Amino acid sequence: xxxxxxxxxxxxxxxxxxxxxxxxxxxxxxxxxxxxxxxxxxxxxxxxxxxxxxxxxxxxxxxxxxxxxxxxxxxxxxxxxxxxxxxxxxxxxxxxxxxxxxxxxxxxxxxxxxxxxxxxxxxxxxxxxxxxxxxxxxxxxxxxxxxxxxxxxxxxxxxxxxxxxxxxxxxxxxxxxxxxxxxxxxxxxxxxxxxxxxxxxxxxxxxxxxxxxxxxxxxxxxxxxxxxxxxxxxxxxxxxxxxxxxxxxxxxxxxxxxxxxxxxxxxxxxxxxxxxxxxxxxxxxxxxxxxxxxxxxxxxxxxxxxxxxxxxxxxxxxxxxxxxxxxxxxxxxxxxxxxxxxxxxxxxxxxxxxxxxxxxxxxxxxxxxxxxxxxxxxxxxxxxxxxxxxxxxxxxxxxxxxxxxxxxxxxxxxxxxxxxxxxxxxxxxxxxxxxxxxxxxxxxxxxxxxxxx
Length: 453
Prior knowledge:
Blueprint: E1 2-5, H1 8-18, E2 25-31, H2 37-50, E3 56-61, E4 66-71, E5 80-81, H3 82-85, E6 86-89, H4 96-105, E7 117-122, E8 127-132, H5 139-152, E9 163-165, H6 180-183, H7 188-203, H8 206-209, H9 223-226, E10 245-251, H10 253-265, H11 270-283, E11 294-298, E12 301-302, H12 304-311, E13 324-325, E14 328-332, H13 339-354, H14 358-366, H15 373-382, E15 390-397, E16 409-415, E17 424-431, E18 435-442
Parallel strand pairs: 6-7, 11-15, 15-17
Antiparallel strand pairs: 1-4, 2-8, 2-16, 3-4, 5-9, 7-8, 10-18, 11-14, 12-13, 17-18
């Protein structure tokens, strides 16, 4: 059942996923013990009832360059079964090789009667990996969905069925794909910018997508050789190598607490501190290994609170979906400030972007509505290099444990695949039992200089 056209942000992410330029995002949790089949079915049934997007997919009209969200119902779909979303894999651990396999092999079927998410279960290490398409969800959606599943695990069991959801729902008021961004008014100044962007992109697309020449890039890395598995892919045949190198960092609770206290003394967040570490590390790199002097770090911003405040929405209306707005931190590496001066400067920029300039970041995301996202995607990957150097996605401190439940989350692990917007990515999450875990992924064919980070 068609429940509406997606917004520009979802349109871009959908086309990127459909063309296999992005596979999925994941959040893995290590449990004290694994649920039974019946408990999985019960918990997932409750969670799918709570979040209707888990029963959705996207469909598109290529000729009209149109993408819509659709709800899988009895009229056009089949029941959602256990085997459709739960897959047991024989891995004994979740490390670089296994993570590469996830991003290389698990692509969702779009324009179909299948849901665009899956849970991989590693019995050998009691680890469960929730995969979501970035077309409909963001990193915080992973958190919200896991919290709902864990809330329902152990509360019941459906033992005599293979069906998780029978797809018999009829439309009601909750079935709407209308994104809060659609309801946020666009000021006249941004309407003028939309018109300008549409004309610039139509007649001179490189002015929109071409990276700034001063941005730090790595001459040994480019899209054609370092990112894409095919050198000259045709439409809908592009896909990424995802053969990245992965450096994993674990900071236990004791050391994390110490680090956060030091950050607090200096008035900065951990994300700003991590960004400052990257600035200092770039100074130590061999000058022949990089070009440019402006380090640009992409920080995806969670716009849920802004949408709730602007539109007087309930928390439940913004829990699951794609609420990304972009923020870029810039810093010239050819300076001599110490790490806390750098972190303080970056913190000031980040605070502005998440407070006084938050409305602007949402309006920037809405600029995608003024252009063809398919053409924009083609233009971006036609360049040799991405528009930013690095990305930091920090899901923050998350408590998944439910009081009285036998299922305790021992640790969590968050990761994203290689992308077209940056060279390397930091993916971070913290939990009360385990502290902080960070995955730093960078191109395989450009390994040596990253050792300083």
